[in-house]
Every structure is written in C-alpha cells, then in structure tokens.
Amino acid sequence: MSARQSRSASTPIPAARNIEQVIPMSFTMPPAPMVASRPRLISNTRPLTHSTSDRGMMSTSVGRTNIVNSPAGSFPPGSYSSIVARPIVGNNNANHPPFEPRIIRATTSPTTTTPSDPTCFPSSPPPRVRRQSSTSRHPSTLSTPVVNVRSVPPPTNVIPSTGNASSLSTSQAFPRPTYLDHSAFRDLIRTNVSTTVQSADPPLAHVPNTITTTYAPYPYMGRMTSPSMDSDEDSTSTTPPPVRISHASSSKDVWRGKANFPLPTRWSEMDRHTSLAISSDGRDLRFCGPSCTGDRESAAARANEPIPPACGIYYYEVEILHKGGKGHISIGFSSADVKLTRLPGWEKHSWGYHADDGWSFPGHKDGNPYGPTFDTGDIIGCGIDFSQNKAFYTKNGNFLGLVFENVGNDLEVYPSIGLRHAEEAVRANFGQAPFKFAIEDYVHCARDQVWSGIQSVPANWTVLGGGIAQPENSFEQKKAVDEDVESKEALKRLVFDYLAHHGYLKTAHAFKAQCERRSATQIIQPTETAEADDMDTDEGPSSPSPPITGEEQGLRTRVHIMKAVLGGDIDEALTQTQTHYPSVLEREQGLMLFKLRCRKFIELILEASDALKKAKSSDDNPSTGDVGNQEIVRGREATKKGRPVASEQDEEIDETQMDDGGAMEVDDPSPEAHSHSSNSPSLEVSSSVTATTDETTHMVALDVNPISRSSSSSSTRSSSKAVAKAALDEALRYGQILDGDYRPDTRPEIKNHLRRTFGVVAYTDPLAAGGEVAEMAGQESRNKLATELNQAILESQGKPTHPALEMLYRQTAACVAELGSQGVGAAAFADMSREFLDA
Amino acid sequence: MPPQPKTIIRKEDWERRLHDVPLTREDLNRLVMDYLVIEGYKTAAEEFSREAELSPAVDLESIESRMSIREALQRGDVGEAITRVNDLNPEILDTNPALYFRLQQQKLIEFIRQGRIPEALEFAQEELAPRGEENPEFLSELERTMALLAFESSPLAPPAIAELLSPGQRLKTASAVNAAILESFSQAKEAKLNGVLKLMSWGTSMLEEKASFPKLDVSEGTFN
Fold first, then answer.
1. Within a domain: residue A160?
2. Chain B interface test: which of A220, A224, A498 (most B C-beta within 10 Å)
3. How far is CA A127 from CA A167, A279, B110, in A?
4. Total domain count for chain A?
5. Which PROSITE patterns match (chain B) (predicted)?
6. What is the CA radius of gyration of chain A?
7. Is residue A818 in a domain?
8. Does ipTM come in above 0.85?
9. What ranges do the domains of chain B cover?
10. According to the model, what pLDDT value does residue B66 have?
11. Facing B202 at nearest CB: one of A457, A477, A518
12. Do A27 and A86 belong to one domain?
C-alpha cells in the first residue's frame, strides 16, 4: 500500500529546461521519447516502434508474441519454454524471454520510493502512454528517466534482453466501461492514465503541504465563528500553524489528493507468482511449470492497480480458457499483502470463488457453498459493491448473489486469480470488451437504491448544526415530524437569505409574504387571507409595505447600491456606501474604494465614447470626425504618459465649471493631490470628484437632447462635439487624479488593476475592442464589481460573504468528494450534479 | 483491521475544495426556482423568474391548485382538500389508499380538535374502522388517533398522541398530499434543496467517522 504513496501530481521536474539537453536525440522521431521516458524498460523500447503497425492485429489476436501464440481462448498445449522461444512476428530483435520481472525491478528501483513493494510500479507501462508523451512532451513524463537516460543506447541498437516487450506494446487503451458512468466520480476514473507517471511521483504525503502552500484566501469561511477544529488557526491564518495532517501511511490517505482513480487494466507483471505467465496484452494468465502439490502451494496474480472504491461498484469478468485437470481456479480479490502462493480466499484480506467446488472463501480455509462449479468456456464475473462492501459473482451472465462482508473496507484490493495446475488458463476482461453480464443495469439499480436510501433518511439537525435540541426521550416518530418541520423552516430561511443576499428584492418580499401567510394559516384559521397575497410584492411607496425593519432597510440600501453599480452609476454607489457602510470603503487599505474609482473612470471613458459616437452620427461633415479622432489621439498620448493632458484642455473644462470650487481643487494635478493618497486615499477627493462629475453629466444630458431633435443644424453639431470633448476631458482629468492617488501604492493588485483600467483609454470604443479591454469595460465587469461590493458590505455587517444556501451545497459536495476519496463507495452514488443541477 | 486514524483536513485545504466545487449562480438560482415551484410559492416564483431572468420549469398556474389544497389542509379543512384533490385528478386518491386514509385520519383529528366528539366517533366508525380492518398499519394509526379522545387536550397526553394535534401533523399531511399530486404529474416529489439537506446530513455523519474537517452550521451558513 505504501507503494501507492508514490503518486502525486507534484513530480519534481528536472533542472534541465530543454529536452534536447537531457536526452540526446531528436524528438521528431516518435520512438525516441519513448526510450527516454522509460529507460528501465530498455528492452521494451524496440518493440514500441512496431506497436503502431501491430496494433490492429493485437486487438484480435492476443498473444501472438511470446507466451501465447494463438488467439484468445485456445491456448495450445506446450511447454513454457517452447512458447517463449518463438520469435515475435515482425520484430527483428524479438528473441527475448518474456518474464524476468525481478530484473526490471532492479533497474527501476531508483525511481520508486518504496521498492520493497512490487505493486508500486504497475510496471508494464502501457506504451500508449509513451506515445502520448512523445507528442505532448510533457515534462513530467520525461522527468523520471533523466538520470538513466544517458546510459540508454539508441533504440536501434537495443537488443532487448529482459522483459516481455510485446506485452507492453500490446496493452490497449480502452474507454471507461459504461457501467462506471453511474459513479459520481466517473470523470476521475481512468482506464488509460499514465500509470507510470503516477507511480514515479513523489510520495503522497507531500500533497497536503503543497495544498497549504498554494493556499489562496477563498472567502468561504470568512466568518469562522469558533474554529474548534484548529484553535490555533484563529488568527486569520497569517502564520500557518504546524501541519497536523496524518501522513499517507494508511490506505485511506492513498486516495486522497489523487487527481484521478486509475482502474485495473491488466495483470501485473510484478505482482504475480512466477509460475504464472501473462499474455502480451496482460489479460491472460496461464499456469506454467510443475503443478502445485499440497494446500500450501498455489500461484496467484493480481491486477496492476487496486480497485478504486470511487467506482461504487467495480466489476470484471474472467473467461476460463482451460480448466486443467482439477479446476483449482479461484477468482476474486486480494490486498497487496496477501501471499502469492495462496489461492484468493484462503488468506486474510482475500476473497475467492472456486471453480472445482463452487464454494466461496472469505479469507480463510473454511469456505461455504456459494455457486455452481465452473468449467472451460465459462465466463465468471466478479464484482465488489463498495456501497455495502460486499462481493458478487456472475456465471455466464447470471447473477449468483452477494457474498462476503467488509470487502475492501479500509483496504485496497486488487482483482486476483489463483491457479494450481498445469494448463489452467484464464482470460480477464477488465472492460476491454463488452461484459457478458448486464452490469450496467445492475449498477443502475444499485445506484438508485443507494440514492433513495440516502434520501429516505430525514436530515438530522443535530448533525447540520443549527437544529433544535431534541428532547432525550422523544419518540422516533415525533422526531421525524420535527425534523421534517425543521428542515422546512431551515429551507425557508436559507432561501430567503439567498434571495436577500443577492438582492432579489421583489422575490424576497413575495416569498416572505407567502411564508408569513402560511404560518398564519397554520395557527389561526383565517380564510380570507388568500387575496392579500399578490399585493405585497412591490416595494413602491404606493403599495402598503410591511413596517420596515432595520434589516429590511439594510437590504434595500444594499440592493440599491448594487443596482447603482450594475447600472454604471458609481457615484451613487460610492455616496450610498460612504453613508451607510463607510468601513467598506476603507477595507483592505481602501481596496474597495480604489476599485470603485477605477470603475468610475471607466464609466467616464464609456460616456465619452458614447458622446463621441453621438457627435459623429449627428455630423455630416467628415472633418468633425477628425477632430474627434484627434481628441482621442491626444487622450491616448496623455494616458500613455500618465501625466496631465495639455493645459489648453484643462482651461476649457475649467471655464465651463468655474463656479465649482470643488472641481477646481480636485483638478489640480499638483503634488499635494498626489501626496494625498499613500495607502488609503482620502474620501474627500472622491466625493468632490463626485460633485464634478454630476455637474458634467447634467451638462451632457442637457445638451444631448437638442441634438436628437435637430441633428443637422451646425450649432448642435458643434455643441455635440463640445459635449464629447468635455466628456473625454472630464474622464481624463479623473484618470489623472486616480493615477496620482494610487501611483504610490505599491500593492501588485492595485498596480495591475490600475494598468488594466487605463488600458481602456486607448480605445475609442472600448466595448467593441474585445479582449481584456472589453472585459474590463463591459457589463460583466460591473457584475463582478457589484458582487464584490455586495460581499464587502455583507462582511462589514458581520454576515457571511456567501449565502448559506451556497455553502450548504458546496459543503455537501466537498463531503461527498472526500467520502469518495476515503473509499466510501456509497458516495459514488450520490451524484450531486446529476441529481440537483441537471435540468 | 486496526482502526484507521482520522484524516485531518485543514481549513485552507477545505476552503480550496469548497471553492473548487463546480457551482454557478445560475445553478443556485435554478435550485431556488425549483424550491419555489415545488413548495408552491407562486408569487415568489413569478417574481424570481423576472428578477433572475429564469424561466420556471413548470407552468406556474399549476402551482395554484396544489397550493389551495395545501392551504385547505393547513387550516384544517380536510373536506375541501379532498374535493379539490379529486377535482384535480381522481386517480390520486383512488390509487393511493394510504394517502386517502391519512386524509381521513386528519379529518378525524380536526373533529376532535374542534371538540365535535359525537361526529368524530361516528366518522371513525363509519369511515375509518372498515379501513383499519383491511390494514394493521391503518388500525394502529386509528387507535393512536382515538387515544386523543381519552386525553382530550390534557397536557398529560404522551407526545406520540399529542403531536397529532400539532401544526406539524397538518404540515405532514399537506406535504404527503402535495408529493402525491406532484408525483401524479410526474414531477419531483420534493424540492431538490431538501435532497441537498439530506445528503449533507448523511455525508457529514459518514465523514465524521473518517475525518476531521470544518463543519458547516447550515442555519447560519457559518463554520465552527
């Protein structure tokens, strides 16, 4: 099991940057990276070059290579050695004995963390992986072998001496069996992952640390009330507390942090008794050598991967190719610590169904009658239902019943087969081919059953945290009633809270009114309330609204602010926020204020862009358009420099607003204005700017109307031009102040945002510009800002930044995912996106 | 197997996982809409479809009849509810004897609540007793209900008896009828959000055995 640790996504990448530096061969040749990526399988590299052309035949004729020289299902009798000696068709260098796993193990040991465990390298890396890596040149696939690479002879010179080369080259990738579609973790279950890449990774114990270091402050737990779990983390996690994670020593941890769950795809070259020969495609097992005598002697093999409980139900089938003389064949499962000299089912942590007597053996020699015997040609299916930790078997497509307890409970198990006598041979189907048994239907039923089982238990409010305390002696049924009621009440609160959080004001009102009416119906018996329903949906002053509580008022203010942002009225948002939630603008050294002001600037630019469009459209004289363009050019230059625009412009603007003292003051791009800001820019600045802009906006509004009425008159033309110019000047002036205020702020977040904000100026029509500019200017950016501001306001009120309803879903999904990682099979059948999100 | 040590999942790690859960505002809005429709908040559902720019999955008008039945039950007017259910679809009660019994039981409860004891007795003998003979479960429910007469609004009544008079009992009956109607329209029986709550409850208790992780107080939306 510890071998499993060696997987993680964080394989150290070799220092060498350039692949060519590391591996002295051209990467345009497909075989080369294969060699490079797996030097320990030197012997296998040669056949890889053939595998492509051979593949088609491989799929139909399994073992035309070393061991098996005939199609599946008909092992010719013959000695082990004679089969081996047969040259591989189409392989020039094919004179290699097929099985010397120990040699492979020796060469590979440097790359593994726990060489003692043979299962560590599902060894036989399917060559397809190599092919992938050769095209993608992913560093991680190259990282492992670098050390050895220089000692690898060029592939053309390789005379394979060890290993069953063809067995590696013929293992076929196959799509995930469809019955696994019923697992919620289906997208993580892999049949064709690069097992070698995984096994070459450093121990999994590192993973939690990695997570810690890449921690970004997600706001979900912004309101941790009492961190009972880690009391030392109370202080807002500035200094990470000592890691208290149990290191990956148990099978539980093995699944954790895995990006995916590899399926068994073949028998393991390593993890098998030496008397068992494996076919080229890894699916056939054949007993070679002298038959075992005595109960102690048997020969077992395990698959290359443990079965992920995240499958929910796992299933494979075995065809009995040859029963041999006595049919001492056991089909089942075992953990990696079970001796390979024993039939599955005889030893603890193994389970088996035996061909000769049809008995099942649950981990000791006292078996029980279970099913029929089986014989040459029979197809035996073998599954684990991880939702109950029971196994089941099928024979020729017929279900034989559930059997065994605690199969794979907190224990990694592998498909395993045991043989005892010469000529015994089986062929496994790990999903490469259609199954005889209708496993998909079976899993579907099991899934539905598990799901309805989960759904039939009322929510337990002691578990969910907020429930009413149950009286100790309450009746079971009473409890159920209460929980039902409690759930309903809780959902009401959650939904209302959600609506309020996101500012669905009318819905919230309608919902609340209906809730109140219902609870009224329950207690009194009014029959006439029904009409009152549709009245109280509007917040308008005309409708008789319920007395406004503080909370209600807060909600309205918040929604008002959000709507202001969404509508681009940043001044209103700023003013209201300043009035009602002043602390919000000061948060994080004025970050929120900064973002709002940046948005304000963008809104001004958009206004200017609009005004310019209007001026252009109202204009039949093309020369005016030029003027507009010139202005833009000027503006562009100004912002590029990041310095004040030409003083001429300033004067013009100042003339129009001479009476506004505040405007004058702010417009002054003097050092004082700049020095104003440091880390928390003064609010005065922004409010005076607000005043200025209001003025301008009004002016624009006044002037625009006549334009539309008589667009041909020259006076309107010039006035619309003036409006456009004024708008642009206004925007640029605001930009200067903004720049001045925040230039000294060295926070990268500020700098980056400022840069992106000013990027908008470069375009006459930012919304049409596309890319980052349009993103910055568009509605989506307003939405984002509104959401951020909303969260900030809620947080300042001591409320969660995310609605409890959202947290409920996220928390549930995280729980289910973790259960899947922990090997709780039932979690695989709690498919949230399917149950709750799909329409 | 020796008991496995509990995995400890740290706050930061957990927070990242919460973040990684694929979930959009639209997903949540649809869950809320589903809730409003299934639970019969018609006006709210209408408003929500406007405010969230979301079309409800069902015809909102169909909510209305469902809700009037529910309201009838919640104010204790069982007769009205039965009539309306039959107006809606007579097969609902015909094919569901347990539900019909439940409604009759509720009617009996309402008689007792109102102190109309003679009517209660007559109703029990004529309508309920024959059904009790058919089904032992019905019989024991009938007995439980009749026990109300013995205690007659006495505070000494055992909880299992007294709860029959609680608003929760009406709610339960109303929910059962609501579910049956929804089912007859081949709609989901209960709001998906309810399912999330149950799954949360299941998942939390399962995971508590295996790992130590930040727990969510669902009512507050806070972690503790």
1. yes
2. A220
3. 10, 15, 75
4. 3
5. CTLH, LISH
6. 36
7. no
8. no
9. 1-58+187-224, 64-185
10. 85
11. A457
12. yes
